[in-house]
Amino acid sequence: MTEQVKEELSAPGATAPVTEVLDTTAPATSVEQRSEPRLGERTRRRRTAKVDTILAEAKDVALAALADIAPESAMGPVHHVRGEEERLTTHLFECTLPGYRGWFWFATLSRAPRSKVATVCEIGLLPGDDALLAPAWVPWADRVLPEDHKSPEDYDGDGEGADEFEGGEHEQTQ
């Protein structure tokens, strides 16, 4: 270390600079040989949850909860059960409302440990894989092109719309 660095480190409240620690026991590798960055300790991947049998059998509880927000005629014959976590299961029912092709009514149920009673956590409507969704929102400034703006010459000669460019107000007819 240089004298200047020693003085800076010995000053009150000074901290040592952070430096990269190299592993000298590992074989030398070039930057090109390292394919992915090391981001710390590896974590275990989450297992897929098993479907709780008590919650899977509680289809009537899910249907009763969905009756609060949807008529029975809006639910189709397709029924799926999806395990979310331990003692947490989602029931999915096909939505038959016009305009909602590919959507599913859902009711998420849970239960306490060693309990046989299913409790409703959440209900609602979710899009499926083939659901019709609205396109992503685009700000007005990005949607409107310069050629979309009209000038007074673009209006036909009947005078309709010309007063918009003269600063006048439209006369309301009653």
Could you explain how this protein is built, in words?
With 174 residues, this protein is α+β, with helices and mostly antiparallel strands. It has a domain at 47-97. 14% of the residues lie in helices and 21% in strands. It has 4 helices and 4 strands, in the order H-H-H-E-E-E-E-H. Strand 2 (88-95) and strand 3 (103-110) form a beta hairpin. It starts with a helix and ends in a 31-residue tail after the last helix.
Shape: flat
- The string of secondary-structure elements, in order, is HHHEEEEH
Name the structural class: alpha+beta
Q: Please give the order of strands in the largest beta sheet.
A: 1-2-3-4
> Span from first to last CA?
90 Å
Using only C-alpha atoms, the radius of gyration works out to 32 Å
Pfam family, one: DUF3027
Protein name: DUF3027 domain-containing protein
Organism: Rothia endophytica
InterPro entries: DUF3027
